[in-house]
Amino acid sequence: MYLYKNQNNQVNSLKEKPFKLEKEIQNLFEANLIALSNLQFIKSEFTIKNNRIDTLAFDEESNAFVIIEYKRSQNYSVIDQGVSYLNLMLEYKADFIVEYNESQKETLKRSDVDWSQSRIIFVSPSFTDFQKQSSNFKDLSIELWEIKQFENDVIVINPIKKSKSAPSIKQVQNNDNSEISKVTQEIKIYNEEDHISGKSDDIIELYETFKNAILQLSSDIEVVPKKMYVAFKLKNNIVDIRIQQKNLIFWINMKKGTLDDPKNLAIDASSKGHYGNGDYELSISDTQNLEYIMSLIKQAL
């Protein structure tokens, strides 16, 4: 990756400043965890059963714990450590609950946590091709994030996306009692097929029409299927869509009183329970107001 600074129409390249220690990466991440990952910081150097987790975080959107590990070298197996730590979390759930409650001064019950959405993130300046390939399974909740530091206090973070043709980890499992098998039995990675399965062709076509329109708003928008909806994200969620039997439910991620909606199509969802993010909800059953709805969603960019 090449970065340049434009000063008075004169372009100068920015030189990379390699991190000297893993601790530098960890300190930077933990001090800016919400800004960098939208995760709630729980504990640094969380020790459990002779294992030390670099950062324990909580994903409030998924109601799930997230383990973050920082690496500066490349001589380690992301899949071995990742699967081992995920198994550790699933085996000792009570310890994670206790740590959350003690550090946050709140009362989180085991039933409040969606353990099926547990995941681990490895953060490193670079990953080998083998590391990328070994974690490239559509149903394995191991993520790789590259981080680089440049002069002029510039930080670049690049989450490595799994390929669209990523296989299932179940295709390479040899033992149903393996650690990988235990993880895949309890942790679920959702995809769009989970949401459109069993829906009518009309509803699927309606979803695809709006999906394509949303993606045209910005080339950086990412489709992230969750348990209860499909999220459309830049850094934060823009709009969440729940695909139902007869309609689509949209939640636009804006606070009450901030959406310019002269047609009053969106209803106030701030005081009622709802799955998606934001205070504005729309029920969609046709494409009649597609362009207008796009103008509403665009306000959340």
TrEMBL record:
- Please name the GO terms that the record assigns under molecular function: nucleic acid binding
Classification via InterPro entries: DUF5655 (IPR043714), tRNA_endonuc-like_dom_sf (IPR011856)
Species, as recorded? Flavobacterium johnsoniae (strain ATCC 17061 / DSM 2064 / JCM 8514 / BCRC 14874 / CCUG 350202 / NBRC 14942 / NCIMB 11054 / UW101) (Cytophaga johnsonae)
List each copy of the DUF5655 domain by range. Answer: 192-300
Question: What's this protein's name?
Answer: DUF5655 domain-containing protein
Query: A single Pfam family, by name?
Result: DUF5655
